[in-house]
Design brief:
heterotrimer, A alpha/beta, B alpha+beta, C alpha/beta, A: alpha/beta, TIM Barrel, eight-stranded parallel β-barrel, 16 strands, C: alpha/beta, eight-stranded parallel barrel, about 30% helix
């Protein structure tokens, strides 16, 4: 299985490649990608540098143009596709039907992947994107159980990529407007979830409080691990009980599932975290490289090493890891 | 009786003493000397412009030291943090150990944040931009002396500051 | 301008559903959407029942549309979807690309529901070419962008061929998950959820922690099984003249357990000129249901939960 790794900066990209990535996905410096954070991502010069380094090491570069083109800025998405095509990157990761259509018509040779933001969870849906735009691969949303992934894989007209590790989206990707309901920005309309401009951290006498546009997301006691102030991971009150009403701040980790995913015919594993530092990228990529290599050597006796799990837990949100929806009981 | 480790006995008070007794113009020179090569590429790329007219505070809690950084002629410099100045727009706070680990990329800032070893006050967006700009620095391209200084700080941290070592 | 009533997002007992539609067909509504769009496990009405109900309602003189499930997870979901698409006596609203593919494959016309991500005229054109007759705008799109999309569609030469529908009243469908939050709140596993969402005919309110401190604070969200809705009621009713101007054809009212028929009547009389003023205060004074907290932020390009007064020159 191909290991597809995140990079929000050139050092992160180098860290990914030096630690064993097969492919690295990056985004441009605007709202055409779903990690549109200040100071992150690549302008055309940096993208060229990234590509040069990747080529010299025999690693692929994918460009994520995975937000929905807003009607007042269509040209930005067009330009992003043009730029990526000029750089002759190895694939584009796209969510929007309009953008897919443009890329497929204009650059028929350029491999297209359907982004997880495309929210496609069935072989029928994939068939649509395959027939209309000739996509070669799709990234599955993190809402399917392992059995459901297997079923889709059996009937899919295209290669499949699944998430292996990273912050966990509990909602079907591309189908969540929680962020824009409370702020004005969402992954679909701006490429961000819980924009930093609306986040405030305040240390009170007893608690560390996180707020999103004045709405209290969580209160942490001293020593309690904190999480990103995303709405799906806050502690809220439902019928007078205060708890993580939607999800706990945990990370997805599927090291355990490598054999099953491989048997199901999954072609690539994606690691999440373009917004994270080079240090994070280096750590998670090296663990996953070791794990995939170890599986390739002796598939029958594969089992994740304690030190791998420890290393991943160390960089995880909430410092815990979970199988997420892959594990049926979670659903 | 509580046994003090070398960190608590010698190193931290020394650094604390040094930093608090150092006159501001000297501090400013040292900071400029250190930061110039680190952020030169970011400056040329225009990646520092977000800091113009804004001030970011770095507070190192265990040595009671706070630095305020801002732009001067496009360069990142130490700004006066006296009471007459307006307070920084955002403050990143942590222990010396956390900052050394950050500078060396030995730890990931988000992880330090989840573990409550770093905190952010004020304008989160500004702090995030600072974090992201630091992440874009290519450590391999720093001058040799700076690389050595960084790795020395990391060794010092590992042996004396990182309290997990005791 | 036509009025539609959207699919019922909540899980109501069978009789309540039947009574609801008996009441709705008496109102001046033009289009009725029905079907289970949230959770495949709900069983008060199975897909066969929805098909039957659709057929019955076809005689009412209203335009009937069958809506499909939003989050497709299993083969059983696909099988149900195929059955619905092939046996439907009426137009189908596709709420997932699986449905779009199945309908297009069978050369059947369709409506693209609000969970199909159409944010620009180019995407709209792709679906138009596959047989889409109408689209329901994703709820987070603001007025200016809708205006831009429709103008662009005109320039591209297909704007006149499709209808545009806007979610105009009710709790907003904001997110879908693999997890059931109602079951979670009841401390039940999803597989053993006991269909507990049937106890919440208007969903389960979720508040920020602060409601305990300051007494009543607005509801943040509404939990409805695997769906998360807004805490407030979205209300764009007073925007009908603006919608009319930019080319919206249908305003959608989303069902609540009470007062839906009244909202439709109110909107209808405003549309026919009987009472031009649908401003929030007046609606507030007249309808009990609407005493629920309201919002309209998305339409104005600000946080969805916010409330904006109509901008000058709107009308």
């Amino acid at each position: 299985m191909e290991l597809v790794c995140p990079a929000g900066s050139l050092p992160a990209l180098k860290a990914a490649i030096d630690n064993g990535a097969d492919a690295v996905y990056i985004g441009f410096k605007d709202d055409t990608n779903a990690r549109h954070f200040s100071g992150l991502n690549f302008n055309d010069r940096k993208a060229q540098k990234a590509l040069d380094y990747a080529r010299s090491q025999g690693v692929k570069i994918f460009v994520a143009i995975n937000t929905y083109a807003q009607s007042n800025g269509w040209e930005r998405w067009q330009r992003a596709v043009d730029l990526a095509a000029d750089l002759s990157v190895d694939a584009l990761i796209i969510a929007d039907m309009g953008v897919l259509n443009y890329a497929a018509q204009r650059y028929p040779q350029l491999p297209l992947h359907l982004s997880v933001q495309g929210s496609c969870t069935s072989a029928e849906g994939l068939r649509f994107y395959y027939r209309e735009f000739g996509i070669r691969r799709a990234v599955l949303p993190r809402v399917l159980s392992l059995d459901q992934v297997k079923t889709v894989a059996k009937q899919s007209p295209v290669d499949l990529e699944v998430f292996g590790f990273g912050s966990l989206c509990i909602m079907a990707e591309g189908r969540c407007h929680l962020s824009s309901y409370v702020t004005d920005q969402s992954p679909n309309n701006s490429g961000v979830c819980s924009p930093a401009k609306d986040v405030r951290w305040t240390q009170t006498e007893d608690h560390l409080e996180s707020r999103l546009n004045t709405i209290l997301i969580d209160r942490y006691q001293a020593g309690e691990t904190a999480g990103y102030p995303t709405l799906c991971k806050g502690r809220f009150a439902v019928e007078a009980n205060v708890f993580h009403a939607l999800e706990e701040p945990v990370s997805l980790n599927t090291l355990d599932l490598i054999p099953q995913l491989s048997a199901a015919g999954i072609k690539a594993i994606k690691l999440e975290g373009r917004q994270r530092s080079p240090a994070y990228v280096a750590q998670i990529v090296s663990v996953w490289r070791s794990a995939l290599d170890s599986f390739a050597r002796v598939p029958e006796s594969f089992s994740p090493k304690v030190e791998w799990i420890q290393k991943l837990a160390n960089v995880s949100e909430g410092s815990q890891t979970t199988l997420g929806a892959y594990h049926r009981a979670w659903q | 009786m509580i046994k003090l480790n070398p960190y608590q006995k010698i190193l931290l008070p020394s650094i604390k003493g040094l930093s608090s007794n150092c006159p501001f113009p000297v501090q400013k020179k040292i900071v400029r000397f250190l930061l110039l090569p680190i952020f030169e590429e970011a400056r040329l790329d225009g990646d520092l412009e977000f800091l113009s007219h804004r001030r970011i505070g770095l507070a190192i809690s265990d040595i009671d030291y706070q630095a305020t950084l801002s732009l001067e002629n496009g360069h990142l410099t130490l700004a006066s943090s006296s009471a007459t100045e307006r307070p920084p727009d955002a403050i990143i706070r942590g222990n010396l150990s956390a900052f050394i680990q950050l500078a060396n990329r030995a730890e990931d800032p988000d992880s330090l944040f989840f573990q409550r070893r770093l905190s952010i006050e004020g304008d989160t967006d500004l702090a995030l931009e600072v974090k992201n700009v630091i992440d874009t620095v290519d450590l391999d391209r720093l001058p040799e002396w700076l690389k050595k200084a960084l790795s020395l700080s990391q060794r010092m941290n590992k042996h004396f500051l990182d309290k997990k070592a005791f | 301008m036509k009025i539609s009533v959207g699919p019922i997002y909540y899980y109501w007992p069978r009789q309540q559903v039947m009574d609801f539609y008996q009441e709705i067909i008496q109102t001046p509504v033009d289009v009725i959407y029905l079907g289970e769009t949230v959770c495949a496990k709900r069983r008060e009405l199975r897909s066969g029942d929805w098909l039957e109900l659709a057929e019955e309602l076809c005689d009412s003189g209203k335009k009937i549309v069958l809506s499909t499930l939003t989050l497709i997870e299993s083969r059983a979901d696909i099988a149900a979807l195929k059955k619905l698409c092939s046996q439907s006596p009426c137009l189908v609203e596709a709420n997932d690309m699986s449905a779009v593919q199945i309908l297009a494959d069978n050369n059947l016309p369709f409506v693209a529901g609000p969970s199909i991500n159409i944010y620009n005229a180019q995407a709209l054109q792709v679906l138009y070419q596959k047989g889409m007759q109408r689209w329901v705008m994703p709820v987070e799109i603001m007025r200016q962008n809708l205006d831009g999309i429709l103008k662009q569609a005109m320039t591209m030469g297909f704007g006149d061929m499709i209808e545009t529908e806007v979610f105009s009243y009710g709790k907003l469908p904001l997110a879908y998950s693999a997890r059931c939050f109602t079951a979670r709140a009841k401390n039940l596993a999803k597989d053993g959820c006991q269909l507990s969402c049937i106890d919440y005919p208007d969903g389960l309110p979720l508040h920020s922690q602060e409601f305990q401190v300051h007494g009543e604070t607005p509801k943040l969200f509404t939990i409805n099984g695997i769906q998360t809705q807004s805490g407030k009621c979205y209300n764009l009713l007073d925007q009908w003249p603006v919608m009319h101007k930019i080319g919206v054809d249908i305003m959608r009212v989303s069902p609540g357990s009470q007062g839906t028929a009244d909202v439709i009547r109110q909107l209808s009389s405003a549309l026919s000129g009987a009472s031009a003023d649908l401003s929030r205060t007046q609606v507030n004074g007249q309808l009990k249901l609407i005493s629920e907290e309201q919002c309209n932020g998305y339409w104005y390009g600000v946080p969805g939960m916010d409330s904006c007064a109509g901008l000058a020159g709107d009308k």
